[in-house]
Specification:
CATH topology of the largest domain: Nucleotidyltransferase, domain 5
Distance between the termini: 19 Å
Strand content: 15-25%
CATH architecture of the largest domain: 2-Layer Sandwich
Number of domains: 3
Strand order of the largest sheet: 6-5-4-7-11
Radius of gyration: 23 Å
Largest sheet: 5 strands, mixed
Oligomer: single chain
Number of helices: 15
Bound molecules: zinc ion
Shape: globular
Structural class: alpha/beta
CATH class of the largest domain: Alpha Beta
Number of strands: 16
Length: 427
């Protein structure tokens, strides 16, 4: 019983630290009075918890504001310089690694093109580790300043049941990453033990998730999804993915594959998809498929250049304009499926290809969604463009370790898992 009592006090303390830290992170700078009003905690509790967070270096003062007739109120915010986080995007043509401070201001970045061997696993692991060393070196920091590394990958990410699984160590995932397995059918990754392979080359806490889900988290935290409890963030790149957010959290399903919207069937017996099936949505509206359907993209250039050429051609050439109109209808029909299945309040279109075609196609996409979806849920849903730009996958990946830091109440984040565990225990 005594043991249980001790744990409860410690959990309560961590819960209060986490709640105040999260609130300051997303709403700060705020005064102690505002924190008290928003959290419902007593002035004494606020004073204690904030004092601890300042002593730990996680929270700092950010000037003051005059209060009506009283003493000026000191404003508080999360200390951006407490540590760094890294976000990695294992993309379609390159691996991008970015180092951020806790305010997610970029401190260094490295772009490492994939070689002709494409997504060869050992090659990708090498690029991620090389990029990690490069950004730490370029920012002039020590590796011990990095609180964790988040990686967004194309494919289904199974978190496994190892120490890195959510729920490990009193609800705080310490980032062992060991059990994480990736099923990337469209890039030839069949149950790749990506966590273990990366772990062999770094001691830093590792968090891995599907790229569409990391993009979704970035848009939910800082972009067009902010403030929505239920939303779908659609990622249009060479392929197509989605992050379904229910009750403020990504919906994962039994083994984390939920949201594979690109491989829902648009046309029975239709075009061959990269996944091997026929008629998937991705086989019509993904950039690779769209350029194949057009058939006139300039040879030997990137898909970005091809899509730019298609959009320019549509101003002159009726067949290119018709292809885009048809694509808008396919995309709208796919979005109607999302509306009917999930009843989201918001659908956000992101990803580099989505951001390129969206501004032109959005009115027609909305029209098609209205035509194909049930009227009542459709009337409750807004369809909007993403706000974070094409590099949002790295920002989203960096939110993976950051989310763990906030969830843990900022329990001192030491590189050594056993030390971290011991410190979590005493808190
Ligand atoms: Zn498919």
């Amino acid at each position: 019983m005594a043991d249980r009592g001790k744990r409860t006090v410690r959990d309560l303390r961590r819960g209060n630290r986490s709640a105040l830290l999260r609130h300051l992170y997303f709403e700060g700078p705020l005064s102690r009075q505002e924190l008290g009003r928003d959290s419902g905690l007593s002035a004494g509790s606020i004073s204690n918890v904030v004092g601890d967070l300042i002593a730990d270096g996680l929270v700092e003062e950010a000037g003051s504001v005059d209060s009506d007739g009283g003493r000026p109120r000191i404003l508080l915010r999360v200390a951006a310089g407490y540590g760094c986080v890294v976000g990695v995007d294992v993309g379609e043509t390159r691996v991008r690694v970015e180092l951020f401070d806790l305010a997610l201001t970029e401190l260094a970045a490295a772009d490492l093109p994939l070689s002709d061997s494409g997504h060869d696993v050992d090659h990708v692991v090498r690029l991620v580790l090389d990029g990690l060393s490069a950004v730490v070196r370029d920012a002039g920091i020590s590796e011990s300043d990095v609180l964790g590394v988040g990686v967004g990958v194309p494919g289904i990410v199974e978190q496994g049941d190892g120490a890195g699984a959510p729920g490990a160590a009193n609800g705080v995932d310490l980032g062992s990453g060991e059990g994480i397995v990736v099923h990337g059918q469209t890039i030839g990754w069949n149950a790749v033990p990506f966590g273990r392979l990366l772990r062999a080359g770094t001691d830093l806490p590792l968090y891995i998730d599907n790229g569409a889900k990391t993009l979704g988290q970035a848009e939910m935290w800082f972009g067009a999804g902010r403030g929505a409890g239920s939303a779908v963030i659609a990622l249009l790149g060479s392929g197509v993915g989605a992050c379904v957010v229910a009750d403020g959290k990504p919906y994962r399903g039994a083994t984390s594959s939920a949201g594979e919207w690109g491989h829902t069937t648009l046309q029975v017996g239709g075009r061959l998809c990269r996944c091997g099936a026929r008629g998937c949505l991705e086989a019509y509206v993904g950039a690779e498929a769209l350029l194949e359907r057009w058939g006139r993209a300039p040879e030997g250039q990137s898909e970005e250049a091809g899509l730019t050429a298609l959009l320019a051609a549509a101003d002159e050439d009726p067949s290119a304009a018709a292809l885009l109109a048809e694509t808008a209808e396919y995309l709208g029909a796919g979005i109607a499926d999302l509306i009917n299945l999930f009843n989201p309040e918001r659908i956000v279109i992101g990803g580099w290809a989505g951001l390129m075609i969206g501004p032109r196609l959005l009115p027609a996409v909305r029209e098609a969604a209205v035509a194909y979806a049930l009227h009542h849920p459709c009337a409750q849903t807004s369809i909007e463009m993403g706000r974070l730009g094409p590099d949002a996958v790295t920002v989203g990946a960096a939110t993976l370790p950051l989310a763990r830091l906030l969830d843990s109440g900022g329990a001192p984040w030491n590189r050594n898992p056993t030390v971290r565990e011991a410190r979590l225990e005493v808190r």
